[in-house]
Specification:
The chain has an eight-stranded antiparallel β-barrel. It contains six helices and 15 strands. It has two domains: 125 residues, Toll/interleukin-1 receptor homology (TIR) domain (Rossmann fold, 3-Layer(aba) Sandwich); 98 residues, Lipocalin (Beta Barrel). By secondary structure, the protein is an alpha+beta fold. It is elongated and about 60 Å long.
Length: 298
């Protein structure tokens, strides 16, 4: 009897094998290849493993969303409270499973430090009880590094905003010493921008586009899947984030950059686009009320 039952469509067997091997390397036992003992009924063997597994990982793909076998196995796992879903294709889940957050393995290439794989491991550990065994130290270091970068970026943005605000509003400075808005030079009557372009493209141009993802948590509601978010340019350093999902609303974000991460420069809506990911990923928390993560669409 295995700890993890891996449910997938036959067309996704290669990706299921890769995931089963990765989970097995962490010390978990995985039933996935559907090899049946000679003389044993196929459906009875599956039912036995499905009923005894401590966790059922369902791989949702363009093939599995149309598979009655996979949907039945997912429903049985959901009834037992042991379902841990994962997306291996960008698809719309069957209606009854859309309210459950799924780990994103769409671009996973057997990298143990992948954010989606780590999320899947955390979900499995929660369902089974305890932490993933033999989880490489670099996984935790990667998470800690990302957390530190978020914290440092937030502190830096807050300090810069506070310092600039105090400087500009300082009532005891002589009026003559207060800076006046720079006058942009012009050429042929057309104003020129006073700041040079950022290497690698202007910040706004690096993040504009459509993103598809999920609301992972909401202080006033539940998680939701398949949420479209659009990022449009207001100027070279400012974008507007909009969504048809009312809870996300409309947020204007002033941008800054740390390496290949485009961050929001202050405000109450943390924003990050990770350009190291292919395609880039967006994380935003409008007014610190709900957490959204999505992938840029081509």
């Amino acid at each position: 009897m295995a700890e993890i039952f891996l449910s997938y469509a036959s067309e996704d067997r290669d990706r299921a094998a890769m995931l089963a091997k990765a989970l097995g390397a962490l010390g978990w036992t995985v039933w996935w290849d559907r090899r049946i003992v000679v003389g044993e009924a196929f459906d009875q063997a599956i039912e036995r493993e499905l009923d005894t597994a401590k966790c059922v990982v369902v791989l949702w793909s363009r093939h599995s969303i149309a598979s009655e076998w996979v949907k039945n196995e997912a429903a049985a796992a959901s009834d037992r409270g042991v379902l841990v879903p994962a997306l291996i294709d960008s698809v719309k889940l069957p209606l009854e499973f859309r309210r459950r957050q799924a780990a994103e393995l769409i671009d996973w290439k057997n990298d143990p430090s992948h954010v989606g794989f780590q999320s899947l491991c955390e979900g499995i550990a929660s369902a089974i009880g305890g932490d993933p065994r033999n989880l490489p130290i670099r996984h935790q270091q990667a998470k800690q590094s990302l957390s530190r970068r978020w914290i440092l970026a937030g502190i830096a943005a807050m300090v810069m905003a506070l310092g600039l605000g105090v400087y500009l509003a300082n009532p005891w400075r002589p009026a003559a010493s207060r800076p006046s808005p720079p006058t942009a030079p012009s050429k042929g009557g057309t104003p020129l921008e006073t700041q040079p372009p950022i290497a690698g493209g202007e910040l706004a141009d690096l993040v504009v586009g459509s993103y598809l993802g999920n609301v992972m948590s909401d202080s006033k509601g539940s998680s939701r899947s398949d949420i479209d978010v659009t990022v449009t340019r207001l100027d070279r350093y400012t974008v507007r984030v909009t969504s048809s999902y009312q809870r996300l609303g409309t947020v204007d974000v002033t941008l800054t950059r740390i390496g290949n991460q485009i961050l929001g420069a202050g405000g109450d809506s943390p924003f990050m686009v990770d350009l190291d990911r292919n395609p880039p990923t967006l994380q935003i928390n409008p007014h610190n009320e709900l957490a959204y993560a999505g992938t840029k669409q081509k």
